[in-house]
């Protein structure tokens, strides 16, 4: 086989960033763990500084590593095979995120379909009901805890519905931005992508408003039994993913303003759009199973 038949594959030099990232994650883990322990004892010590230092180092690592990646891409060091590797890596990452949410939806399913009926005496578990909670009624959501604390159900109408519409529209605007990039319409690309980032920020703002309303007026908190736990676990982790997705798209917008990407070479933008569509799909499922059913 002739030499020209072989495809060049760029192998980067040794990098310090993985080591820096590992140190940052270690500091964050130790700081967060100790912070939780200190908070459970009624105070907050110096662990918050350890967590802050770890977070700062992580940000430095991400900026430095991504800068190196961007420089390699812009100088033509990457090849088609590396692009295929990136696509496979992003696909596996999104698959891992799917499994992440499957676990939490599974916890919700177990609580609603198995645990709650068992506590109510279903499936020959009458003794369980009489011993653990004789007055328990197997209904969902559970609006009263064993100690008598009561809460309210978060309805689907209002802010949740508005946020659903916002995310669905943002998925369309993100797709339109991708179409504009492939057509090399830079002005249209900036407009659609900027609107997508704005919609993501609006979603996060309204979710904060929803949480404030839940805590101050509905009595719906993390201490509100299994309903409060699953509600904030699912919506909170999704909100975290929306934050990450919005940040990714904002960085893509900054790169586009600097003249990066072309119709032939724009995988970073494509990966960000994949992630955003994934976040939107998760919210639709969450809206249906958490708010409506």
Could you describe the 3D structure shown?
With 293 residues, the protein is mostly helical. 73% of the residues lie in helices and 0% in strands. The protein has two domains: 1-78, Helix Hairpins, CATH 1.10.287; 80-97 and 144-292, Up-down Bundle (Four Helix Bundle (Hemerythrin (Met), subunit A)), CATH 1.20.120. The chain has eight helices and no strands. The longest helix is centred in the middle third of the chain and has 40 residues, at 80-119.
The termini sit apart by 62 Å
> Would you identify the CATH H-level superfamily of the largest domain?
Cytochrome c oxidase, subunit III, four-helix bundle
Number of H- or I-type helical stretches:
8
- Judging from the principal axes of the Cα atoms, what is the shape? globular
Number of beta-strand segments: 0
Please give the CATH architecture of the largest domain: Up-down Bundle
Low-confidence stretches: 1-5
CATH top level label of the largest domain:
Mainly Alpha
**Main sheet overview:** none
Helix content: over 70%
The assigned structural class equals mainly alpha
Mean pLDDT: 89
Counting structural domains, the number is 2
CATH topology assignment of the largest domain: Four Helix Bundle (Hemerythrin (Met), subunit A)
Helix and strand pattern: HHHHHHHH
């Amino acid at each position: 086989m002739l030499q020209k038949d072989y495809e060049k594959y760029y192998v980067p030099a040794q990098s310090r960033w993985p080591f820096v990232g590992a140190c940052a994650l270690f500091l964050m883990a130790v700081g967060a763990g100790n912070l939780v322990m200190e908070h459970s004892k009624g105070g907050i010590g110096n662990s918050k500084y350890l967590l802050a230092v770890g977070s700062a180092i992580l940000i430095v690592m991400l900026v430095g590593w991504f800068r190196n990646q961007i420089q390699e891409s812009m100088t033509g060091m990457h090849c088609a095979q590396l692009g295929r590797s990136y696509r496979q890596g992003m696909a596996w990452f999104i698959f891992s995120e799917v499994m992440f949410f499957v676990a939490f939806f599974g916890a919700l399913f177990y609580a609603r379909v198995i645990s709650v009926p068992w506590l109510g005496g279903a499936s020959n578990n009458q003794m369980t009901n009489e011993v653990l909670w004789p007055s328990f009624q197997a209904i969902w959501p559970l609006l009263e805890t064993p100690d008598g604390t009561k809460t309210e159900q978060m309805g689907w109408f209002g802010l949740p519905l508005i946020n659903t519409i916002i995310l669905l529209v943002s998925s369309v605007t993100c797709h339109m931005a991708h179409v504009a990039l492939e057509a090399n319409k830079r002005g249209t690309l900036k407009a659609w992508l900027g609107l997508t980032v704005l919609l993501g920020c609006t979603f996060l703002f309204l979710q904060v408003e929803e949480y404030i309303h839940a805590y101050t007026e509905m009595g719906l908190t993390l201490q509100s039994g299994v309903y409060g736990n699953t509600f904030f676990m699912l919506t909170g982790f999704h909100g975290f993913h929306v934050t990450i997705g919005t940040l990714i798209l904002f960085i893509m917008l900054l790169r586009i303003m600097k003249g990066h990407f072309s119709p032939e070479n724009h995988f970073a933008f494509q990966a960000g759009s994949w992630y955003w569509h994934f976040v939107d799909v998760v919210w639709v499922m969450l809206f249906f199973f958490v708010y409506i059913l």
